[in-house]
Fold each of these.
Amino acid sequence: MDEDCHVYRPGVLDVVGGRIEWVGEATVAPATDLPERRVGGLLMPGLVNAHGHSSMTLLRGAGDELPLARWLSEAIWPKEARLTPDDVWWGMQLGCAELLRAGVTTTCEMYLHSRAVADAALGAGIRCVVTPGIFDLPGAGPGATWQRLLEDAAQLHEDLDGRNERVCVGLGPHAAYTLPSDGLTAVAKVATELDALVHVHVAESRAEDEVVRKRHGCGAPELFARTGILDCRVLAAHAVWLEDAELDLFARHDVAVAHCPQSNAKLGSGIARVPAMLARGLRVGIGTDGPASNGNLDLWEELRLSPLLARAVACDASALGTIEALRLATSGGAAVLGLDCGVLAAGRLADFVRLEFDDAAFVPARRDGEILALLVWAASSRLVTDVWVAGRHRVESGVCRNVDEPRARREVATRARRLAGA
Ligand SMILES: [Zn+2]
C-alpha cells in the first residue's frame, strides 16, 4: 500500500525493533545475519479500524431492528450503566481476539472504563488509540458527570500516553447531542493543551441531526466550530447527514472521518458520502463501530461495503475505486489516526498480516493489479492466517497467541447474562 501500490513477487520484509527496515523484491534484498523466515502467502499491511467500541462484545445482538435513538436509550445505555471495569476488560479481550484474527492490527476505541480498554488491548497485543467516552448520560454510571469523565480522560492521557508505543490516548466527547456546549468547549481546551485526538460521533442518523439543529440552530460541524472542537485534531465518526457546506467546513479544518457503512446500514441510519469527502481531500478511514451495532468486528466487510455502497448510490462502477477501498482500510485509517502504520515501507511500523494465497479467491489473477482487485472483491478475513503487530507475532496459524479465547468467551457470556437480566 505504498504510493504506487507495489507488489513484490517474491518479496522480502526486514523488521528491526518493531519497524520495517527494508521491503522489496527478494532478488535485491540486502544480506542479513538476522534470523530469516519463509512465510509464503501474501503479506499486506494490517487493517486499521478507525472507529470501534469493541468491548460491546458484551452487548452483541442487543436491540436488533431498533433505530439509533431507541437502540441507545432502550437496549444499550441501561446495560452500560451496570458495567464494571472487569466486564469491559473481558469484553475488550474477546473483541481484540476477533479483530486480530480478522487481520486488524490497530483499533481506535471509544468507551467507558477506558483504563480497562487500554489494559486489555496491551495484553492482547493489538495497537490501540484509546479515547475515553465523555458525555452526560445515565450510561456513564452513578455520579459520572461529563466533568468527571473529562478529568478521568486527562488523567489516563497523563498515565498512559507515550508510555507504551502500542497505546495512545485521545478524548472521546460522545456527540453533539450527548454533551452540552460548555462541555464541548471544555473538551476542546483540554485536547488543545494535551495535543490529543478528539474522537466524536457526528450526524450519524437524520433524527439525531434534527435534534442538534433544533437545540443549537445549526448542525454539529458548526457547533464544533463555535466551541473550538474544530481547532483540535478531530476524527468524526459516521458523518452521514452532512451538507456540502459542512463537508467544506470539515475540509478547511482538516477533520478526518471514520466511515462505518455496515453499522450505518444495520441501524438504518443512511450512507455517508465518501466520494464527496475524498473529492474535498478529507482523510477517510473505515470502522466497524461496536459489535452490537455491526454484528461483528470483521473490517473486511467494511472494506467491501464502502465501494459497493458508493457505486450503488452513484450508479457508477468507478465511484469509489478498488485501490481507494484498500487504502481506506490501511493507509487511510493510519492517516486519520495520525499513526505510522498501514503501509509496508521502510521506517513504518511493522504491523502486517499474512493471507493464504493458494485459494480460489486469487485464481486466475496474474497481473499485480488483478491481485489487488481480488483482495477487495474475492478475499476476506477467512484467508488471514498470521498477524504481526510491531513485529511481534500475535496470531499464528489462526490462533491468537495472547488471548485465552475459550475463557474470554465464557467470561463475556456470563457477564452478558448478568447485564441483560438485572
Ligand atoms: Zn460509535
Amino acid sequence: MEEGGVVLLGFWSSPYVMRVKIALEEKGIQFLYKEEENIILGKSPLLLLANPIYKKVPVLIHNGRRRWASKGEDQEDAKQEFLKSLKLLEEELGDKPYFGGDQFGLLDIALIPFSCRFHTYEMYCKFSVEKSCPKLMKWVNKCNERKSVAKALPNPYRVYDFVMEVKKMLGIE
Ligand SMILES: N[C@@H](CCC(=O)N[C@@H](CS)C(=O)NCC(=O)O)C(=O)O
C-alpha cells in the first residue's frame, strides 16, 4: 500500500472522481493521482486492496492506511484522526439540532449513514463516540428518530458482523 500523503485512485471520465478532485483542490490538499487504466475489464491490485468490497473509484488513500486493518500505533493514530474529524463535525453542528439549523437537510442526509459504522469503530478502537462527542451523538439519535433514517440505516451490529466477516475473508487479524 502507498506510503505518505494522499493518493487518489480515479478514472478520467468518472464524475465521482471529478468531485473529489475539485474538493481536494479547493481545500488545498496535495495529492498523487493514479489513473485506473482499465476500470471496466481489469482493476489494479492497489484498487482491489484499497476497496476490496466495491472495487470502484474514487478511492482516497491517506498515509497508505486502512482503519480496519491497522494495528498498534497505526490504529491509535487512525483513531485520533477519526476523533479529530468527529470533533470538527461536532464544532460545525454546535448546539443546533441539525447541521443546517432546525430543519433536517441535505448535509444531515449525507452524513447520517456513516453513523451506523460508529459501533464498529468503537469496538475496534476502544472509544466511545458518546463520551468524546456528546452533541454529535445527540444529533445521531435525533436523526434516528426520523422514520426515513430509521428505515434506511442498517443495524450497527449487523455492520460490525459484516466487517468481521470481511476481515476474515481478507485474512486480516
Ligand atoms: N457511489 C460511488 C460510485 C462510484 C462509481 O460508480 N465509480 C465507477 C466509475 S464512475 C466505477 O468505479 N466503476 C467500476 C465498476 O463498477 O466496476 C461514489 O459516489 O463514489
Amino acid sequence: MPSEFTSQKETALFQPEHVRRQFPIFEREVAWLDNAATTQRPERVLRAMDEFNRRHNANTRRSVHRLGAEATAAYEGAREVVARFIGAESPAEVIFTPGTTVGINIVANSLAHGGIGPGDEVWISAQEHHGNWVPWLKATQTLGAHLRIIPLLPDGHLDLARFQEGLAGGRVRWVALTWVSNVLGFENDVRAFCAAAHGAGARVLVDAAQAAAHVPMDVRELDCDFLAFSGHKMYGPMGIGVLWGRAELLAQMEPFILGGEMIGRVEEQAATWAEPPYRFEGGTPNVMGAVGLGEAMGWLENLPAGAHEHVSALAREAAQTLAELPGVRILGPAMERVSLVSFCVDGVHAHDVAQVLDGRGIAVRAGHMCAQPLLRRLGVESAVRASFAPYNTMDEVNALVEGVRAAQELFA
Ligand SMILES: Cc1ncc(COP(=O)(O)O)c(C=O)c1O
C-alpha cells in the first residue's frame, strides 16, 4: 500500500502518534511489534503505580493503620474496575492472579476435587497456548480422565461439528478454549462453543489472554463459566491478571494456593476457607499490579474511536503484504486479523528473520510461541509473529515487510 494513502487513512480514522506519545518507552527508537508477548505501558499506568508506591504502600486487609486502609481501598477499587470492565455480576467474581497461566492452573487444579473423574473428558482446542494445554494435560492424567482436542478445519478455524460429536458421547465435563489464538490471530466463535458445551452440561473456561486488549469482554454475553487474562498484554504491568468465575461455581471450588489471607479459621488439625474471591488469593497480593491494571482498563476505555480498527487494519495489511512475498507463508486466513500475523519464510529460520528485523529496530517474536502442538499440526517448527497495538503505524508495517525481504536476500 503506498504510504501517502496509508497516512491519509490514518489521519482520517485515528492518529497512532497521539497514542504513542503517551508511552515513555518510545523515547527509544523501536518498532514494538511484540505486543502479543507484552504490551508497553502508558504514562498514566506508570504514574498510578508510582503514586501507590510513594504514598500508599501497605499490606491489604490485615492492617488496621491508615496506610493499610488506603492500600485495601486501592486494591478493592481495582477489583471493582475489573468487574465493570468485564461485565461481572459482582467484584466477588474477580480473582486477582499473577496472570492467565495461574488463573487456568487454579481452575484445572480444582478439577481434582470432584469436578471430574476417571473416564471423563476435558476438551481443549488444537490452537491452545501451552498455558491452556499443560494444566489440563496434567489434571486429566492425574485423574484418569481423557484430554480431547478440538481439531482445526483446513483454514485454521475450530471444528465445531467435531466438538458436537464429542459432546454427544456424554463424557465431556470441561472445555478450555482460547478466544483469540496467539499464533493464528483470529477470533474464535467462543459463544457457539459455550452454548454447545452448556447444552451437554459441560463447563467452559475461556483463555482471553490475546483478546483482552482488543475485543470487548462481557462475560455474561459470552456466557462462559471462567475467563482468564493477563494485565501485561493489555497495557498494564506484569505479575497481575484476572480469573473471573461464576459466583455459584467459585463458591463450590476448592482453593489452590493455601496459606495466609485465604482462610476462614485455622485449627491445629483443620482449616476452613474464606469466601471467594479471597479463598483463591492466598498470600500477599500484588496491590501495585492491581492498581496498574485498573488504570490500564481506564486507559483502554478512553482510547479514541478507531483504535481497534486501526490495530486490525495493521495486522491485515501486514498479512496481505507478506503473503504476496514469494517464499513467505502466512499462518491462518490473511483477512481475519484481530491484532497479529504469524508467518514462515522458506529457507530462513524464524530466529534469523527476527535478528535481521532487530538490526533494523523492529521487535518481533520468533520460535514456537508456546504453541508447539499447534505448530506441529500446521507443519512448521517455528514462526515469526508481528503483533500490533494502537501506537503502531503503517510505516512500521512497511518497515517489517522490507526487513523480511532483506532477510530473504541475506540468506538466499
Ligand atoms: C493465548 C495465550 N494464553 C495464555 C498465555 C499465558 O499468559 P501469561 O504468560 O501472561 O500467563 C499467553 C501468553 O502469551 C497467550 O498468548
Amino acid sequence: MAGEILVYVEQKGGAAKRASLEALTLGAKLAAARSSAAHAIVAGDSAADAAAECARYGAAKVLVLDTDPKDTHALAAAVAGVANDVALVLLAHTAKGKDLGPRIAGALNAPLASDCTAISNEGDTLVARRPVFAGKAIATVKPASGTLIASLRPNAVPAEESAADGAVENVSGAAPSTGLGAVLAEILAAADEKIALTEAAVVVSGGRGLKGPENFGMIEDLAAALGGAVGASRAVCDAGWRPHTEQVGQTGKVVSPNLYIAVAISGAIQHLAGMRTSNFIVAINSDAEAPIFKVADYGIVGDAFEIVPKLTEAVAALKAQG
Ligand SMILES: Cc1cc2nc3c(=O)[nH]c(=O)nc-3n(C[C@H](O)[C@H](O)[C@H](O)COP(=O)(O)OP(=O)(O)OC[C@H]3O[C@@H](n4cnc5c(N)ncnc54)[C@H](O)[C@@H]3O)c2cc1C
C-alpha cells in the first residue's frame, strides 16, 4: 500500500456513517489525483455489509477487520498494522475519530492533523488545513515525510458516489487490548436525537434571547421544517433549558453544516468557535450590533418571536409547492 490512502469507515448495522463517506470521497479524489488508490477499512458486526457502500464511494479495496471497534486500542493497532507506508490515513472527526486518530498516529509514530476542513495534494505532499484559535486562523500542516494521519470535520466536503472496484479483503486484526487505556463502557445517545448535530446539513440554534425553555418549540419547528437538528448556546444549556448534547461552541460540539441559523445568540467568540466554518450562516437578532452579524452571510435584525414562525411557515409553503 506504499503511497496509497487508507480511510477508516465507521459503520452501524452495515450502514456506513455519512461523515466517513465524506472522508472516503475526499480520500478517493486525492488518490485519483496522485494516480494512486484509496482503500476503506471497516470493522465490527455487519462490517461486511458496509463494504458495498464503501465501494460505491470510491474504495479500490475494502479491508474488513475482525477487530471489535469498541476496543479502540486494538482497533488502532490493527489499522496501524495495515497502514504501513501509506501516504494518508483518513478518519472522520467524530467521537470515534478523535479517539482513534491519535492512537494510530502514536502506533505509527506519524504526525496527526485533526479536525481538518480541507486536505489537498501539493505536488507529492499532502497538505492539511485545520482551524485553530477558535477558528480565527487556519493552520497548514505538511508532513516532513512518511504517513500523515488526518481527521476530517463532518460536512467539510460532500459525500459523492464514484464507482471503484471495491474488492473485499478480510484482515485479521490485533488481539484485543490488555485492558490498558480507556474502556468503552456504554454509548449514550440522546433518545430523541433524530439527526446527529455534528453531521446535520442544517442546524438551527437558539440562544438566551429566547427567554426560556418553553420558547424552543419554534426552534424545533424551524429545524424540523428544514430537516435539520437543534443546537443551543452554552448560556442556554447552562441554564438547563436544553441538554448539553446540543451545545455548540468551544466547549460544546463543533458543527459545520451547509446552513446554520443562529436565533437570539449574541455570537460570543466561544460560540463562533463551534460554527464559523458553516457554509451559510443566518443570524436573527434584535440587536443590530450583535457580534454574530460579523460572521453571518445573511442577517435579520428583529424580534425572533415574530421572525422564526414566519420563516417556518415560508419553508412549509415552499415545500408544499414541491
Ligand atoms: C471558557 C468558556 C467556554 C465557553 N464555551 C461556550 C460554548 O461552547 N458555546 C457557547 O455558546 N458559549 C460558550 N461560552 C459562553 C459565551 O461566552 C457566551 O456567554 C454565550 O455564548 C452567550 O450565549 P447567548 O448568545 O445565548 O446569550 P447572550 O450573550 O445573552 O445573547 C443573547 C442574544 O439574544 C438577543 N436577543 C434578545 N432578545 C431577542 C429577541 N426577542 N429576538 C432576537 N434576538 C434577541 C440579544 O440581542 C443577544 O444578542 C463559553 C465561555 C467561556 C468563558
